[in-house]
Every structure is written in structure tokens, then in C-alpha cells.
Amino acid sequence: MGRLGLGVATALSLLTAGGLYAQGPAPALGPQANTSYTYLGPAASAAPISEGAGPFGTYPQPIIPAAYNSTDPSTAAACPGTSAYNGMPSCGANDNSDDFVETPWDQILCRALRNLDIRLDYINWGISRPQTVLIGAYPGPGVLQPTFSQVPIGTFNGQVFYVPAWEVGLYPMSVQKNPTDVFPILNSSGSQIGQARAYDTTGISLYENSGFQGTFSLPMTYGTIEASGFILAKANSAPNPGGLPAGIVGQTESFAAIPVTVGGQPSDVVALFSQSFNQYFSSFVFGSEVNCYFNAIVPKDYGLVIKPMLGFRYLGIDEHFDVVATNPGVPPSTLESSTINNIYGPTVGCRLELLTQWFSIGVDPRVTFGVNQFAATVNSSDPNTGDSRDHDIDVRFAPVGAIDAYIKIPIQEHFRLYAAYNLFGTTNLSRPQSQVDYNVTTTGLNDTHLSLSSSGIMIQGYEVGCEFNF
Asked: Which residues contact 427 (CB under 8 A, 6 or more apart)?
């Protein structure tokens, strides 16, 4: 009971004084001393009292209460118990340590949490628009410069003379080179029955995309380890293709056109759609980094410092390009093209930081020697020519360059404001709008397939947030 009471009192004292952070072994208990010395004269004591000599005469020896003398204090060092959480020492065979023993892992985790810096940021980044390409193959000369039906202008010696229709002003004539401009559609006899135009990807825009980034910094003896990850909301763009061409008098039928090659060769074959034509593009970007910023080359409390850096980066870019075109009464014709780029590799760089009492300004350039392991897919469906599917996986060298320019403003000891401009980009990507070969076989079957290309991407914008620690 005495040990239990003393243990409860010790635990309450530790909790009050912050003893949850106590580390290391507890010292062995020494002999207990009575804090009250009582003199018992001959009349008050039933037992004889031995006296001892002192510098001022004789005085009775202190009386140790029996409760303190029941256990030999010299045995305390042999009892179990290594920390403040083990309970009081005891030599009982059935005494066990309690459930609050702090392991080495607990100690490491506790120290890490006490020194960890956490930064949470809102990001707003724009993605560079994809390269402008024609939706379809470049058409043959018979499409853009067709031979119109001829118009009789009179007879001479019983022979009828004809001239091309454009010469008498029935149809305009120009040197047409751009398939996105309106061009005439002729029937088998050479008479115009309508007009059409092809479309490209000019209207795609991927700016002003919100996202989130988290950064965790842990100081070490040799520098600081920083781990960060971001995710950007999916950027969607459905550019207005400008509608179908407006009809003209006598030729009211208007079409959206997708020119195709036949057997891999340029041709005058054009897929025509009179009801609707739509295109969609989406881009989803995410990534993470783990970097070690070593201690400054010339350590300073204030002034310009340079910190070398080594790390590792992963960057994911998932993009899709879809086309849907329809004619009345039949299923739509569709095209689905997608790419998933996975870029990863080691990173080198440095951090230049100007430290002052009121704020810190820094520039953080770095380069990743990345490898792009990507997958590309094209699916096509048409009610007249059938379905087609193509898929490929490839690996390319894709370096990533990045730079952050930032400012930190301390508000109080454990809280700082953060703002930055971010810019990074890479090359050797496969983007979905430029990897499609629009083709049909010589027998008229759908043969739309992959034609892998290479292009770059750039992402830039701003970042604002707060940094705090425990």
C-alpha cells in the first residue's frame, strides 16, 4: 500500500510537470528518511532510548517509523523499472511494467513531430495549350480545288462551248489551301450540292486551374529533408468549333468534314456530318518531390545563403482528346485518344535565400533527369466503316526543369505566411490530339491508329499558403 500511494503521487507530479516527455532510466531509490524527528523523554517512552554524543551534548537518536523500515533500501537497485512509466521499483515476482513504456520508435516520432514544419498551399496554375493540329488528315487537291461542272455559253458551227462555272461567276474561285475555310462539296456529276469545312484544335484553353499542395520539412544535422505533393484540378476545354458553315442560296446543305487518307495515301475522301460536331480536351496533372537541402555553404543568421540540393521527383500527366460527330438517324462517329505520362528521376539544384529579421526571399532552381514511361491509346467508331483500336507503351528521356521564387513572412514563432511563383516544364511527351492517324483501308474499313509524336508542356502560376510547426 505504501508503494502504491507513492506511485500515484509520483505519476500525478509527472503529468503536472510535463513528465510525458521524460526520457532515460530513473535513478535508483536511496534510503528513505523520516522528515520529523520527535524527542521522547523518559516519562513519555516505554522503551529505553539510546543517546549519542553531539557537538552540543547528548541527544536522542531519530526514530524511523516502522513503515519505512520494512524494506531494505539497498535492494531497490536490483528491482526492475527503467523509466518514469515503469511504475515504482519492486522485487515482487508478479510485478509487471504498465502499458506506457516509451520505445525508441516513440522517442524518434515524438522528436520528429516537435521539429516538423508543415506548409499547406492553394495553387492556381495554367497548363500550356496543346499544339494546333487538324482534326483529320490533310485533304487531297480534289477537295480544296474541285473541278466544277461546266456551263454552256453558246454554239459555233454547231458545236457547243462550255466554260467552268466559276468563270461566269456562278461559283467563287480562289486558291484554297486551308481546310478549315469553307470549300464546296460536289456530286458525282460535278455540281455543287453543299459546302463544308474541317476543324482544328485552336480553341483549346487550359488556364486558371485550382489545386492543393502540401509540404513537410524535417531539419536534420546535415540539412533539411522536404517532401511535397500536389494535385491540380482536371482542366477541361470544349472549344466552340464555330458551328457548321452557313448555307448559301442554292446550296443549303452544310457539313462538318473530317478528311481521311486511304491506305496511308492522301485522298479526296471526306467524312461529312450535317447534324453536330464537338471536340473535348482534358488534362490532369499531379506530382510529388522528396528533396534534401544541405546546410548552407557559408552558414549565416542573416544575409544570402546557398544550399545545395539532391532529390527525386515524380510527375504525372493524364490527358484525353475526344471527338463526337453525328448525322441524322444513325449512331454517332466517335474518336477517343488518351495518353498517360509518368515521369520520374533524380533531381539536382540549389536554393538561394536572403534571410532577414522580417522576411525571407528565395529562388529554388532544379533539374530532374527524368524518364517518361507513357501509355497511348486511340479508339475510333463509325457506323459506316466500323471500329478501330490501337494501344502502345513506350519509354523516353524527359528532363524536367523547375524554378520557384518565394517569400516567407513570419507572423509569430510558429506561424509564417508563404507566397510563390512556380514554373516547370518538360519535353518528349505524347499528347493525345497529335497522335492520331485518320485512315481507312482501300476496302473502306476503319483503320484509325496511333502515330506517336513528341511535344512539350509548361505549367506556371502562383501559390499562397501558410507554414507552421509545433
From this structure: 398, 399, 454, 455, 456, 457
Please, which pLDDT band fits residue 420 given cuts at 50, 70 and 90?
A: very high
- CA-wise closest residue to 453 among 391, 376, 401: 376
| Domain annotation covers residue 41 | no
Please check whether residue 149 lies inside any domain of the structure. Answer: no
Instruction: Please tell me the distance from the alpha carbon of residue 313 to that of residue 401, in angstroms, as a whole number.
Output: 11
The sign one gets for the Cα dihedral 390, 392, 398, 401 is positive
State whether 75 and 134 are in the same domain.
no
For residue 287, CA distances in Å to 127, 229, 330, 443 come to 14, 6, 43, 46
pTM: 0.71
3-state secondary structure of 12: helix
Distance separating alpha carbons of residues 442 and 269, to the nearest angstrom: 11
Give which of 259, 257, 272, 254 is closest to 195, Cα–Cα.
Answer: 254
Cα–Cα separations (whole angstroms), residue 194 to 60, 78, 183, 187, 251: 129, 105, 9, 9, 5
pLDDT of residue 99: 55
Q: Which three cell numbers stand for residue 356?
A: 532577414
Q: Are residues 111 and 470 in contact, defined by beta-carbon separation less than 8 angstroms?
A: no
Domain containing 80: what range? 1-12+56-92
89: pLDDT strictly greater than 70: no
Length of the chain, in residues: 470
Number of CB atoms found within 10 A of residue 41's CB: 8
**Same domain (yes/no): 271, 417:** yes
Q: How many domains does the chain have?
A: 2
Same domain, 82 and 193: no
Domain with residue 307: its CATH number is 2.40.128
Residue 173 forms beta bridges with which residues? none
* Average pLDDT of the chain, as a whole number: 78
73-87, 88-102, 160-174, 297-311 — most confident range: 297-311
CB neighbours of residue 192 within 10 Å: 19
161 versus 287: which is more confidently predicted? 287
- In angstroms, the CA 322 to CA 283 distance is 12
Which of the residue ranges 75-84, 117-126, 242-251 would you say has the lowest mean pLDDT?
75-84
CB atoms within 10 A of CB 382: 22
Asked if the structure places residue 286 within a domain, the reply is yes
Mean pLDDT within 82-106: 50
Q: Measuring CA to CA, which residue among 460, 467, 372, 470 is closest to residue 417?
A: 467
Q: What is the pLDDT of residue 139?
A: 87
- In this predicted structure, which of 260-264, 288-292, 402-406, 459-463 has the lowest mean pLDDT? 260-264
